[in-house]
Each structure stands twice: as structure tokens, then as C-alpha cells.
Amino acid sequence: MQITQTNSDGLKRDFTVLVEAAEIETRVTNKLTEVGAEIKLPGFRPGKVPMAILRQRFGKSVMGEILEQTVNETSQQALDENDLRPAQQPKIEITKFDEGTDLEFTLEVEVMPEFEPMDFSKLKLEKKVADVTDDKVDEALEQIAGQQKNFEKVSKNRKSKSGDALLIDFLGKVDDVAFDGGAAEGHQLELGSNSFIPGFEDQLIGTKGGDELDVKVTFPENYGSAELAGKDAVFEVKVHEVLEAAPVEINDDFATKLGLENLDALKDAVKERISEEYGQLSRQTMKRSMLDALAEEHSFEVPPGMKQGEFEGIWGQFEKELEQSGQKLEDQDQSEEELREEYTQIAERRVRLGLLLAEVGRINNIEVTQDEVNQAILAQARSYPGQEQQIFQMFQERPEMQAQLRAPIFEDKVVDFIAELATVTENKVSVDELMKDPDEEPAEKPKKKAAPKKAAAKKAPAKKAAPKKAPAKKAAPKKKSDS
Q1: CB neighbours (10 Å) of residue 318?
Q2: What is the radius of gyration, based on Cα positions, of the chain?
Q3: Which of 52, 305, 356, 414 is deepest in the core (most CB within 10 A)?
């Protein structure tokens, strides 16, 4: 075998690899001999099948297998002999081969840059923390109470208003033909909840028990059912009762209904939950400042292919969000060239930080255990009540999905490792300051035209009586610089 380096430019290395025809033939013959020892063919005893017949029957498939095996082995040998650590999968192209001739292929690889991580004991970080005040606990309790509404029949048959609930029967039709999922009886609908498609609830405001009316609506163009998307529909609605929300008292009885011993226990639970949320925010802000500091302290070349791949991912997401928000590139205050340059810089920063964290983890033997991955899978599965077993099994059967969970776990473990070595100073701040998004600083981000605001999407009723709303359009995406 001959390995010839043809290029060494920055982090790029190119090689030409030649494997002699004799070696290929030896490998093929040995493999066919193995096949002949196991295969059973009529008229031949095991191990006695002539080589000519083996070549005729299995030659092509064996040759393909040997070529793949030879290319993989010799490529790895080329990397090992030159002491190279690939940054990503090498590109291999067979440039010359015919049966009975030498095998020649090219190997293009981008290697890991060489750099020395900083002394993390010299790293100074600020960790913003905020106290959970009584008014925040009371505010959270009010929100919980608002989600536990009890509706009671109105004392007199008055007209309904937003915030009331109606007990209704309805039948939906398109072109005077009823459609699947468009009917229900005794359905309770809260007016103003936006749980039905736009315009449905508005037409029911001002109705009374006993009223019957036709509600005319248009399904959104992007509605989930292609048969109904963009279609005009008429719902025949009968109102049975108007219900009004009964005030919910926040007391021991309220806490008991939620499974807590008393109101004090509920307050403690709410305070603990808020404290956990503040703790997560504190960690996120500290991590952000850590990454900013690491980016300033480390400057090394990154593999061009990795940078380009990261850029394409960022740019693709940017274009997708522009489309969802109904905007175009020309709506931005920067030219496409300027935006591409800015996103290229962000991509380079992300790749550099990713390589740095990976190297810190490698040097310090930081690994993600299977138990940690399993815990992350369980957390994902709990997001799908009733489907936990299927979700868990899906992750078990798809290693690439487990890899997606390993990456953030690994990053968090490396961040924690660095934080233990750094000097971290806690700084008490207000809740508003803790929750402030650094990306909203006008000095850091270019201005872009905001997309028109629309109501957020809501779920349709359980009986699929009315369809989901169209998704709300988003403003143009922010440029995130963290990894």
C-alpha cells in the first residue's frame, strides 16, 4: 500500500492511497474461501465448491465488501500513520479501479486544531440570583386559581359575555355536508379561550340559553386537514345554558383539592418551584457569560467544513423563521451579504466553543453515562402521557436520538466542571434583571421589522368539534451567539 500526502493547507489534509491489485486479489480469495467453507450447493460437499464457481456466484458481492473494507482500513491507517485526529467524517473518492488492477482513491480530511485550554482558575464569573418574594408566590397562586375555574349556571337567563362558558350542541357543515369531527352535544366552551378557530367564539357572545344560530367561519389555509383547509363552514349551534366562572378562594380547601395538606404547604411548594425556575435562569445567565469569556480567551482556526455546516444550519433556520413570520430578506435592515457574514461569524464562534468544550471533556475524562441518558429519555417520555413506553422504546432503538440527548448532557457536565475551577461571585438582582434577555440589547442586534401579531395557536376541543387555529406568525429570528 502506498500513502501519498498531496495537500497540507491549514487544517486540510489530502492523500492519495494506492492498494496493489495483488493485495485486493488475496483479500477476495480469502473471503471466497470462507464463503465456500460455509455455503451448501447441490452436488458439492461443504468446503469443496470450486473457486471458479464461487467467483461466478459470489464474486461481485464479495468484491464490493472487500473494497469497502479495504478503503476503510487503509484510510484509518493513513490517519494513524500521520497522527491525525479527524474533525469530521473524511471524504473518500475512488478514482481508479477495475477488477485485476490497483485500487486508487483520494482521502480528504479536516483535522482537529491544536490548542491549549486556558487556566480556568483565572476565570471570573458572575452568577445572578434573585429571591422569591411573597408577592411572586401570591401571583403564582392567582394563576393556579385562574386555571381551576368552576363554572356555574347563571342565576338569570342573561346574555353571555367573554369569560363565560356555554353549554352547546353543534354540527359543522362544508357545502351543506357534515364533516367528520365537526359535531358534539353538551360541549362546554369558554368564550375568549380561543380554543376554536377564529371567529367562532366571537359570534356566540351575546347569546342566551335556548338560542339557536348559524356560526359562519373559514378554516385557516394551513389547517391540519387538507379537506377543510381554507374552506368556508357553517356550524349549526344550539345554546343550552350560560355559565359564569365562580370565584375561587385560595385557602386550605383549595390546597387540599390540589393534593396538598393545607395552604401553607401549597405556598411552600409554589415557592420551591419558582426557586427552581430562578435557579435555572441563574445557571443559564452564568453559562452565557462563561461562554462569552471562553470565546474571548481562545482564538484558533476551526475546520472550514464544520464552520460551513454550522452556518448552513443557522441560515436554514433563519430562512424558515422568516417564512413563518411572513417576511423576506429584503425586509431586514441589513443586506443578505451582511447577514451572511454575521451568521458566519456566529457559526465560527459556535464551532470553536464546541471544540473547546469537547477538548476539555476529553482531557479530563468527562463522560456521559448510560444511566444519565436513560434519565433524559424518561424525562422526554413523561412529556407524552400514555405513550411513555413507546417513546422510551423509540429512543432505545435509535442511537442517533440518544446522541442528541448526550450532547447537551455532556456540555452541561463540562460547564459545571469549568465553573468549579472558576471564581464565581453571586450577585443578587431583581427578578426582571434575572429574566432580561441579553439578545434584546439594541447595541448587539440589528433592528428588523416585526411581523404582524396574531393570536397564539390553541388546541381544538377534545371531540374535534372545531379545528385548530392557524399558528401565530413570529417576528424575524434573533441572532444567538452562544453555542
Answers
A1: 19
A2: 32
A3: 356
